[in-house]
Write a structure and sequence with these properties.
six-stranded antiparallel beta sheet, 18 helices, 42% helix, binds adenosine-5'-triphosphate, binds magnesium ion
Amino acid sequence: MSAISAETLNLPLCPEIGNRAVEAIHAAYDRYQRGFEEITQRARERFERRDWLGAQADATERLALYRIHVDGAVADVHDILQDAVMERTLWAAMRARHEVGARCRPDAELAQTFFNSVTRRVFSTVGVDSAIEYLEPTDPPIEPGGPPLLDRDVVDAVDAALVRRILDRFAWSVPYASPERDAAAVARIIGETLDSMPARGPLTVDVVRPVFYRNKGAYVVGRLRRGGMTLPLVLPLLNSERGIVVDAVLLTPNEASIVFGFSWSYFRVDVTRPRELVDFLSSIMPLKRIDELYNGIGYNKHGKTELFRSLMTYLRYPDARFAFAEGDEGMVMAVFTLPAFNLVFKIIKDSFGAPKNTTRQAVMDKYHFVFVRDRVGRLADAQEFEHLEFPRRCFPEELLSYLVSVAGKTVRVEGDRVIVRHVYTERRVTPLNLYLREADPAAAREAVIEYGNAIKDLAAADIFTGDMLLKNFGVTRNGRVICYDYDELCLLSECRFRRIPPPTTYEDELAAEPWFSVAENDVFPEEFHAFLVPPGELRDAFLHAHGDLLDLAFWHGVQQRLATGEVVDVFPYRRSALLRRN
Ligand SMILES: Nc1ncnc2c1ncn2[C@@H]1O[C@H](COP(=O)(O)OP(=O)(O)OP(=O)(O)O)[C@@H](O)[C@H]1O
Ligand SMILES: [Mg+2]
């Protein structure tokens, strides 16, 4: 521990109860971090034992931890501070005192976010309260400590022996299936890529020591640097029946970005200094925002802090303006965007038009359902914010009056501020209906096939999107199709897929309403064609690839597979033919 103290830093004096409350917040954070580590460290064994259900349960359990420990800290500070719990001067002194402890931690920024979560809960802070919260990014920890993040080799070229050495650093309890063959193939792919690049001279190969785990995959992550050039090096590993195999070699920022994309669940990676890891990841994926990288390694609460900070910095520009999101207006959500910032804001409307018969709570439950589930690369990650405050000048009048009229319970204007009580943020994608209108025929064909792939990937992960309309799906920068509308999402295993019963009378046939009873969870795949792709060449292409989606047998087949407990993996990369054996 460092020798600095509140006295040497000349901080406001914190009364004894304040010190105790700060200790309690630090202790709650420690418990959170220990719990987080414990679950994260299990990932390796889950992978080695091919315990996929266990891995899924861990992922869900880890997402619940933050809330549990913030709740604990809030209860503790109430107990300690009693009547003084709402005294802001006391909290200002506590924050200064807290900082002394936080700055000695290798994960100072996360501890500070945790403190903010506690004060925000105690005060139900609207906007931010600079006196009692951390606003600015923190200085690096005083004593970083811990093992180095990377292993580094400086070589003339990558050969099989080097790849073998890299693979052997990870001492799995399961052997590699064919390490010689994999090492040779990986070295060959890397060599070919490097040869095609202009840079020459010594090559620095950095490989991150902790492994990234998600679903059935373990990812070795590194980078190659030569001259001024930097390439990511991502090796997805699978634990096959025959042992561990390298499944692909990813060497472009785009491929790495998809692996770390916002539509997959968070990685489990055991890291002491998260900021250092995030900086490393940023060096290989320069287009990814820092908040997305924190989210990607499971620190989504701190991701929110980072996002909020960059948002506020951006909104200081005199020209910063929100705008209506492009596309069809939602019946449940009022959606707006910041054109220069790849983000949409989704606010639950006060009331929903027919035929929606859902409730605000039910919509929030669906978003939570998506948050804790495996999103299999097909559902956008949504971050939930409360009590945000924006400068009013950033809203065009038309947008503001729209928001107040459809969501007045959530959005209110106070002087020059707009206060948003509850909002989800998501990465902005191009709504598929708009994309198809503008894309050239080949790209449009690819997108509708991707749309079918998305429906199938989700089905395999026990998710039925309900609303399969094109307007509820979007195309990412990398051309992947994902779903972003969750209010009709449900477990596929709980749906009843049925054939439409034949009409028994002539009146049945003419009736506008169904002549048979339809339960809440009934689904009629025969009817899908009416919603799906527009008629013509695109529909032909879609049906050619995904005609089975209209077939009852497809859905029953998926349900049967789900019933056996099979965990289907979806790969966030093109599996390398060179490395694949089956
Ligand atoms: N992540 C996103 N990126 C880009 N646009 C989006 C995104 N999320 C929503 N939108 C836009 O906002 C509209 C409404 O969003 P969404 O579909 O989530 O709301 P909804 O009210 O649930 O819709 P519905 O009435 O279909 O149930 C979409 O049709 C789309 O045009
Ligand atoms: Mg929609």
